[in-house]
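ok so i was messing around last nite and threw this chain in just to see what happens. nothing serious, just curious
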Amino acid sequence: MTEEVGSREDRYWKYIYSSKLRIKRRVLRMERLAARRLSLLLVKERSLDDWRFATSLEFLLTWKLKTGCCPDIMWCDGVEFEDIHIAGKRAIRFSGSAWIGPEGADNVFQVPLEAYI
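result:
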């Protein structure tokens, strides 16, 4: 039973990775999820240093790195915020660092991250 589930998962990921369009659609889905999490934090006036937003941003960066911007397939292992502040009614500015490394390797590098969303 476990082998059957693993086989289905392998076919699913091969299906996703076999097309750049499917990867770009995945990136758009992750962008919407991160934007939704951010809007909930802004509307409810909660702390912007939320682990769910950090996780959504981590997945977004991972899939964005898979679009072919790098010669190797990279992934994001985590995001740490140093400074987050609201820049307008529907915008925030944050800085911090992301842990990025080649997929399939254990070494990751701390990369500065600065964004305006």
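not much to say yet. Residues 20-43 form the longest helix (24 residues).
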